[in-house]
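tool_log.txt
---
The assistant was asked to compare two proteins side by side. It first ran the structure predictor on the initial sequence, then on the second. Raw inputs and outputs are pasted verbatim so the downstream comparison step can read them without reformatting.
(1)
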Amino acid sequence: MNFSQKLGLFILIVISVAYVYFSFFNQEGLHFPSINNNDNPPDISELEPIEEPAGIKEPKHEIKVIKIFVADSSGKVRSVNRNCDMAAEKSCFQYAIKELISAPTDWEKSKGFTSEIPSGTKILSVREGEGSVMIDLSSAFEGGGGTESLYIRLEQLIKTAKANTNLPVYLYINGQQADVVGGEGIMIKQPLNERSLDG
């Protein structure tokens, strides 16, 4: 390496060192934020509120506890609770009748609860008017099990209906008002109440 090359390399090194010095170590070249201990934090009321993006808000669900009636291991009619989601169900009374027809749950079965309502029973309609309620069930509701079973299933239905509305409730079978139920000819008084099975 001749003298001129060495000189050029030396000048290049000097320029590089000067550039680094003035860029990073010179006070004017450094741009650190100033810290002022007298500065107060911004008032939270002045900050822009963070809004939840549209479309992801969870709907608020109002839950109503309803009662349905099942039979215990000794044949006595007992109440169990269900939660009716009022945002999802058209009517909590209709939900109660639907739950009654499908009861008991697996957990309730494990506790010894049963139902005398035949598994083939269908809800044909539940109509709620301003002055009364009508429950229309399929004829399967009347079938099988004998007189004692029929009394228990009627008691399950009556107690469930009265626990979930203050309106008079009428029972229909296949569209006809059920004043006599089953092959045994059990007479019931309508509207349904605690004295409907007194004969």
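(2)
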Amino acid sequence: MDLSGKTVAFFGLGDQVNYADVFLDAMGTIYLKVVERGGQTVGTWSTYGYEYSASTAVIDGNFVGLAIDVDNQDDMTPDRISQWVSEIRNHLQ
């Protein structure tokens, strides 16, 4: 599938405590496939405030999309979603 000219934003749900060594790896895997096929990505997210040991969803020091952990940081989810949507909104119109 050719994704040239397509813009993609990612979000991932994970558990940074119980799966600290593979936190949001699926998001990283999908990101690589989209980029491989020419897609443009938006919506990187800071790793600040997360506690995990490894993730393939981290490229150049940031998550490739919004990282959500409702098991351990549920109280932060609404603010994170609101901020992320505000940041990507203009890229997806």
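---
observation on (2): The chain has a mean pLDDT of 97. The CA atoms of residues 42 and 90 lie 10 Å apart.
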